[in-house]
């Protein structure tokens, strides 16, 4: 397929605080350039919406712009086909149309590296629900382009082929998610691993110590949720697998916009800011070249 590159409002592309719409062939995405833009290379975060969502809607749900302005991060919010991603499960319109979303994200990274001051060793992907499952797939199939992933309200399809290259990963899920069962099992279009099985899968891939460091956070927001964080570490490489459990949390983005009533999606926890938790994880890692293509640890923050 021939991709032509056309950007709207090109004269704004490198001005701080600009949000631009980009057409990549037949696909679209939003780009946000932070206010604190410098002449150096900047981290890139791609944020994938859930089923029936859009890139612009994901900006409202998971608004990384304050972090982008503070830390000098460039953001991309892509649109899926028919408001869906081909994450490998058979239920999405994107799957049924044979959409190659792995290729789309790969080309999006190429475009960003060619047109914006992106640090190609610090490309990160996060997403929720269908976008979270797509993020998991990218972690398995696009490992050489990505420094770390963070998945919210999703896990891994049990038939997904595991990555062959270690990658830092974070999985965040509520125990009372009504759409993506915390304990795994059959859902629309496939059968998924539980939250813990997903962590165990990546612990094996990344060669981490199977005994995690566990930290809990009480219900200081008085919303009925508590937070448990498990951190598994490879003592040689520094790569981490992090699991964040929102006890009694729903199919939501903690600290974000409750996009549907609580009766439908469950509790949106205010005991955790998912945006901050994800960025604090991402900033630890950059992708480095090695004979095996492994991801290395960034010794210090940006």
Automatic annotation (TrEMBL):
InterPro entries: AB_hydrolase_fold, FaeB/C/D. Its main location: secreted. Keywords: Carbohydrate metabolism, Hydrolase, Polysaccharide degradation, Secreted, Signal, Xylan degradation. GO terms for biological process: xylan catabolic process. Residues 1-20 form the signal peptide. Gene3D superfamilies: alpha/beta hydrolase. GO terms for molecular function: feruloyl esterase activity. The keyword Lyase does not apply. This is Polyhydroxybutyrate depolymerase. It comes from Dinghuibacter silviterrae.
């Amino acid at each position: 397929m021939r991709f032509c590159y056309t950007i709207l409002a090109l004269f704004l592309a490198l001005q701080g605080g600009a949000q631009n719409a980009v057409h990549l062939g037949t696909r679209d995405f939003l780009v946000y350039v932070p206010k604190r833009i410098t002449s150096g290379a900047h981290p890139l975060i791609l944020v994938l919406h859930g089923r029936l969502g859009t890139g612009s809607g994901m900006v409202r749900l998971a608004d990384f712009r304050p972090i982008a302005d503070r830390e000098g991060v460039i953001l991309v919010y892509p649109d899926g086909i028919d408001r869906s991603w081909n994450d490998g499960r058979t239920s999405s319109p994107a799957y049924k149309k044979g959409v190659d979303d792995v290729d789309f994200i790969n080309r999006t990274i190429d475009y960003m590296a060619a047109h914006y001051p992106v640090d190609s060793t610090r490309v990160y992907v996060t997403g929720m629900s269908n976008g979270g499952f797509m993020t998991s797939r990218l972690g398995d199939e696009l490992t050489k382009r990505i420094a770390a992933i963070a998945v919210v309200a999703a896990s891994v399809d049990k038939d997904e082929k595991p990555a062959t290259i270690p990658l830092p990963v974070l999985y965040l899920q509520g125990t009372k998610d009504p759409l993506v069962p915390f304990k795994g099992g059959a859902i629309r279009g496939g059968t998924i691993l539980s939250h813990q099985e997903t962590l165990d899968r990546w612990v094996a891939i990344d060669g981490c110590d199977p005994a995690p460091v566990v930290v809990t956070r009480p219900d200081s927001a008085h919303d009925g949720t508590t937070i448990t964080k498990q951190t598994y570490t490879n003592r040689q490489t520094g790569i981490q697998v992090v699991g964040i459990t929102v006890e009694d949390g729903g199919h939501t983005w903690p600290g974000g916009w409750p996009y549907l009533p609580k009766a439908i999606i469950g509790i949106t926890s205010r005991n955790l800011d998912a945006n901050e938790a994800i960025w604090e994880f991402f900033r630890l890692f950059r992708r480095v070249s090695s004979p095996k293509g492994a991801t290395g640890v960034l010794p210090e923050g940006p």
